[in-house]
Amino acid sequence: MKYEAIVCDLDGTLLNADHRLAEETKEVIKKVKDTGKKIFIATGRHHKDAMEIKKQLGLDSYLISSNGARIHDENNKEIYERNLDLDIVNFILDTKCSSDISRHIYTDEKWYVEDEKEEYRISHQASGFLYEVKDFSKITGEKFIKIFFISTNQEELLKLEKYFEKELGEKVSITLSGPECLELMAKNVTKGEAVKNIMEKLNISLENTMAFGDGLNDYEMLSEVGKGLLMGNCAERLREKLPNNEVIGKNTENGVAKYLKEIFL
What we know:
- This protein is α/β, with parallel strands linked by helices.
- The chain contains ten helices and 13 strands.
- It has helices spanning about 10-15, 25-35, 45-55, 85-95, 120-125, 155-170, 190-200, 220-225, 235-240, 255-265, and strands at about 5-10, 40, 65, 70, 80, 100-105, 110-115, 130-135, 145-150, 170-180, 180-185, 210-215, 225-230.
- Strand 10 and strand 11 (about 180-185) form a beta hairpin.
- The chain is globular.
- The protein starts with a strand and ends with a helix.
- Its cofactor is Mg(2+).
């Protein structure tokens, strides 16, 4: 098999419904890695969060986090960063949004929220990286990696997406990592750009790279590589944008592990 590199998203892809790694996934990833394939994580999660999952998988590879706003090397040393400009941050935070939309901020070291919500703890308990409740106006002297909005009210979230596209479309990267999560990063920050950056460093062609994803934040990555695979649970908008890409099993069925096992083992 020609593929030398494998890039995996986490939530909705490599992680199961409980946002954890299934034993089957851990075992298959280890066996595929032992064949000489290079395996990478590319996630919207914070790097401190993703590093714990990387450790659980026993990977010694580059790590793409915050949708490409950060890249860390094999030893978890930061080699790339891209932050939101402060004037953009202020504009985003000054924007009024529906009361059922919660706002989140990633800085270099922290994940800030405005209100306590147990559901966010549950989805990140496997890594131990948890949020801190903070008055956003009190955040000073920190680098803003990304700002994101979470809500089950998808209609309001889509309105917010259209508003930011109209007002900031040329200045930031805007994506939906899931139907309930709208994310804003610095301009040109995408997983696709980060994957190109890493593969160039490692002298691996994109044609010889395989990637798995389920959300719109995976679009650039899945369209750039030689084989971009869609999860069975992927967003409908992603499926519409990549109609010719192969669809595999769902994350709840350990779809990535089963596919890798069939192809490489």
